[in-house]
Design goal:
- The chain is mainly α and about 220 residues long.
- It is built from 11 helices and 4 strands, in the order H-E-H-E-E-H-E-H-H-H-H-H-H-H-H.
- Helix 1 packs antiparallel against helix 7, helix 3 crosses helix 9 and helix 8 packs across helix 9.
- It is globular, with a radius of gyration of 21 Å.
Amino acid sequence: MISGLSLCLLLRTSSLGWAALAALLTIVSKFVLRWRGKHVFNPTNFGIVALLLTTHRVWVSPGQWGSVAFFAFLMACLGGLVVHRAARSDVTWAFLAFYLMVLFGRALWLGQPMAIPLHQLESGAFLLFSFFMISDPKTTPDSRAGRILFALLVALGAGFVHFVLYRPNGLLLALAFLSPLVPLLDRLLPGKRYDWKPDPVPATAPPLLAERRLA
């Protein structure tokens, strides 16, 4: 459901065929591009980036919702992060901290007003990426140290794409090209593998028939 919602919100195209192909690539990557039970790529990220790199018929419009919708969606993301039980909030907060350092550090270095990095943060795509894409438990490193390092690499990679290569969609491209490093981070910084299965509920013994009769 999250993959489909992210595709609908991020990917723009005038062709139903390209939209269907993006959905197909997203679903296929979940079952084909795997390594030791984990996804190599975030499925939505893979579907979008694969088409961005191969055709000009699709694009991502980060500021399509406007500033009012941005703040409403920000509140929804923060609320969802609080109530969500997936133990991956550390990678979200780490990425936000590192990416803010990149944006504001560049602005200070160039002597730009702080309104510029603040405006760069007012993006629905940025929120979707931070709260739902980079924090995917099936594509992030197992250990907390690995996740924080991964968040740093993605933030630096996004800054490199934006401010050195001068290309759009730096967040999506950085995540796609750095995701294959996750197995290496898991090997260097091992941790407990995330499991979607809920904790088993202990079975309760049925009451004795004799007790029922006495009652």
